[in-house]
Write a structure and sequence with these properties.
Helix content is 32%, strand content 13%. By secondary structure, it is α+β, with helices and mostly antiparallel strands. The chain folds into 2 domains: 155 residues, no CATH class; 117 residues, no CATH class.
């Protein structure tokens, strides 16, 4: 039995590497006891802002066995998205988060996970499992930290000593017993670069982010008018924000990805501030057809651009 567990574990990690994942860690599927009070306190403080969906399925977020019957293992996977070129370089350029340069990661990584599951079933038999990419009530970062693929940094993102933090997390929850990995130590030390750099003071304390103050929240999740109180604090970010990652010392180890579907549309890098301000819905649909920018919709992107570029808007 133990030999089978070890064999299956090695096979899964080898397959993860073959399919392009940078790291793969495994945890036993169980109730995340330490996370329960943290999640409750975070919600009680109202740090979810208008993201009311985060208040749903509290128990399922903490116990993967409620998502997959008889779940035995949680496989945490890291998929790199660090681009070869920073499209937001230059103080005058309007910026979008690096993860949104190419095709929507939900679709790209989910496609790879479907292949992953199919290959597992071909080799290991009838496995019951589900794949997750920033979807459904799964606490990705705690599971990834538990599996040792990184540690949760002071900006609440998962950090890895080899490639920093510009990567997507994905999970496979399976009813297959595997050899679990363990967590690694926290390598943030005394560094507060992310906290010091955040222009909206969203990192309220080390390891805790007030989601309702984050630039990503304002430019993506918030569907209302952006509060005047944060006018002038966006540093030209019109979709998402990479500030706390760009200043993190561990991201000096980031390496360019090799995923063709994450390559940016050729027109994005050419866009000037004037082009962004004058963007039409037709251009938006063409350039960002398969992009995560679709989440903000055309109207939301126009709102963000106006908020950043219009000195009279309040």
């Amino acid at each position: 039995m133990q030999d089978s567990i070890i064999h299956n574990t090695h096979f899964i990690k080898s397959l993860a590497h073959e399919l392009g994942f940078s790291f793969c860690g495994i945890s036993k599927a169980e109730f995340l006891e330490e996370e329960a009070p943290r999640l409750e306190a975070w919600l009680t403080r109202g740090y979810q802002g208008k993201m009311s969906y985060l208040e749903n399925y509290f128990d399922k977020r903490l116990d993967p066995r409620l998502l997959v019957p008889n779940a035995q293992s949680v496989i945490s996977l890291v998929y790199n998205y660090y681009p070869k070129k920073n499209l937001g370089a230059g103080d005058d350029k309007l910026k979008i988060a690096k993860y949104a340069y190419g095709e929507d990661y939900h679709v790209v990584v989910k496609d790879i996970l479907k292949v992953f599951l199919d290959r597992l079933r071909e080799s290991l038999g009838d496995i019951n499992g589900r794949a997750f990419v920033d979807s459904a009530p799964v606490l990705e970062r705690p599971w990834a930290a538990k599996s040792g693929v990184g540690w949760i940094g002071k900006n609440s993102l998962l950090l890895n000593r080899s490639i920093g933090s510009f990567f997507f997390l994905a999970e496979l929850i399976l009813d297959l017993e595997l050899e679990p990995d363990g967590p690694i130590k926290d390598f943030c030390g005394d560094c507060t670069a992310c906290m010091d750099a955040c222009p909206t003071d969203a990192i309220s304390e080390p390891y805790v982010v007030d989601g309702s103050k984050c630039i990503s929240y304002f430019t993506i999740e918030l569907k209302e008018e952006i509060p005047a109180a944060v006018k002038g604090k966006f540093e030209n970010w019109i979709f998402g924000c990479d500030i706390c990652q760009d200043v993190c010392p561990w991201n000096r180890f980031s390496k360019p990805h090799s995923e063709p579907r994450f390559q940016p549309h050729q027109d994005i890098d050419k866009m000037t501030t004037a082009d962004w301000k004058e963007i039409t819905e037709e251009v938006f649909d063409r350039v960002f057809k398969n992009s995560a920018l679709k989440r903000s919709k055309f109207s939301g992107l126009k709102r963000n651009i106006s908020f950043v570029t219009d000195p009279l808007l309040s």
